[in-house]
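Hello,

Our lab assistant flagged a job as stuck in the queue for most of the afternoon. It eventually completed. Since we weren't sure the result was trustworthy after the delay, we are filing this so someone can double-check. Below is the sequence as submitted and the structure that was eventually returned. Let us know if re-running is recommended.
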Amino acid sequence: MSDFMERFAELRDQKRFQDVVNAIPYARLMGVELGEDESGELLFSLPFHERNVGNTVLPALHGGLIGGFLENAALIHLIWNRESLEAPKIVDFSLDYLRSGRPKTLYARCEITKQGKRVAHVLIEAWQEDRSKPIAVARAHFLLTTS
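-- returned structure --
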């Protein structure tokens, strides 16, 4: 059992959402925020920062930033919802861009559609002002055990 996963479990149990994000350097660098919505579901957000603009003509959020945000959301969501303290490893990540990400806060929600003994499948949806108009959707497969 790794020290990181033990620390993550402790932070999760205490619902120290931002400390969970800060424990993952890439998520911290992007500025990811984590909390719960009114129904108690995990809600990820990425507040707008000028540095996140990839196309200054539109302007639009950088596609790599959107992908990184969704991948990190899936990883955190999976770890948050598992009892095991074994760190999952990403096997496959597929991302569909549906519309340009405007210079506004980006939100994401995840759903674990399958969690077996060795693999897990997570769906991720990102939107800005209106959840019914997603800007990107993704799916991720994780390896849960190495044996």
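-- support follow-up --
The delay was a queue issue, not a problem with the job. The result is valid. The longest helix spans residues 63-81. DSSP finds four helices and eight strands in the chain.
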